[in-house]
Specification:
With 279 residues, the protein is α/β, with parallel strands linked by helices. The chain folds into two domains: 193 residues, HUPs (Rossmann fold, 3-Layer(aba) Sandwich), CATH 3.40.50.620; 68 residues, no CATH class. It is built from twelve helices and seven strands. Strands 3-2-1-4-7-5-6 form a seven-stranded mixed beta sheet. Helix 1 crosses helix 2 and helix 9 crosses helix 10. Bound molecules: iron/sulfur cluster. The site of iron/sulfur cluster (SF4) has 12 residues, from helix 5.
Length: 279
């Protein structure tokens, strides 16, 4: 059985479980990125009931929002109560890899009490390599639905509060598998991929590569300006004193993705990339 057929079968097998939680079936976490296009198409091919939902983060690239509105008008857009810039002030910090409050606030609450189809893949990162096809809100549960004992579901799959059951039907797909599926099915995709982005989503995400953040600086100067306004507010509150209230310098450090000490050392040794010193 090929990967596509297996993914379809996985989704079909889990539908009865999804329907036990919600009449509309699966919650499908849609982002407009290539992996979410694939899970959307697979759910259609599987003929299951699902509700595609996109978490609007307020720092989504305009190209991505246009692409989704035009090609996926049925996707439900869930907008945040507080945007990214205000969250920075609320948490009195810029988000970092160790402090990802924005994901917690803007993305993770969606789909509570549902079986949620997500498009994560082991090949994306070493952290994701440890993830499983079926989990409860990120907790390890089972390697595959084949091991899932449907008779015990009420005991084992008791989900409370913000919890949800996560189903990852393309967890074993490679980058090439994803693109080959998109091409084979003649699917439209967001223009940002042709602009050199490998992954698309929030602009200036602390998890994105240095190269991607450099591109964001070139392509989305308005977002940089808005983030700097929040940094200015933080400086007024007494944060980032190590940068002497220099908002541009705080931003340059933040997009470098390294510690303050390392950033300062790199600056002293002139090893900071030119683009991160661009004012
Ligand atoms: S910027 Fe990154 S860490 Fe923050 S919400 Fe977006 S994806 Fe999550």
């Amino acid at each position: 059985m090929g990967k596509t057929e297996r993914a379809i079968e996985t989704i079909q097998k889990a539908e009865s479980l999804a329907l036990k939680y919600q009449d509309y079936g699966f919650h499908l976490a849609f982002s407009g990125g290539k992996d979410s296009l694939v899970i959307y198409k697979l759910a259609q091919m599987a003929g299951v009931k699902f509700r595609p939902v996109m978490q609007v983060t307020s720092i989504d690239p305009p190209e991505l929002m246009r692409f989704v509105r035009l090609n996926y008008p049925d996707v439900i857009m869930e907008r945040p109560e507080m945007n990214f810039y205000k969250l920075i002030i609320k948490y009195m910090s810029l988000p970092t890899m160790n402090r990802r409050f924005c994901c917690k606030e803007l993305k993770e609450g969606s789909g509570s009490g549902t079986v949620t189809i997500i498009g994560i893949r082991k090949a994306e990162s070493s952290k994701r390599a440890k993830r499983n096809e079926l989990e409860i809100s990120g907790r390890k549960y089972s390697n595959s639905l084949d091991q899932f004992n449907i008779d015990n579901e009420n005991q084992v799959l008791c989900i409370k509060g913000k919890d949800k059951i996560l189903l990852s039907p393309i967890i074993d797909w490679s980058h090439a598998d994803v693109w080959s599926f998109i091409r084979k099915n003649d699917m439209e995709y967001c223009s940002l991929y042709d602009m050199g982005y490998n992954r698309i989503g929030c602009m200036f995400c602390p998890y994105s590569s240095k190269k991607s953040k450099q591109r964001d600086r070139q392509n989305f100067p308005g977002v940089e300006r808005e983030i700097k306004k929040s940094i200015y507010e933080l400086c007024k509150m007494g944060k980032y004193t190590e940068f002497n209230m220099d908002v541009d310098e705080v931003f340059n450090w933040w997009v470098s993705g390294v510690s303050v000490a390392k950033y300062k050392a790199m600056k002293q040794n002139y090893t900071i990339d030119y683009n991160f010193n661009k004012q």
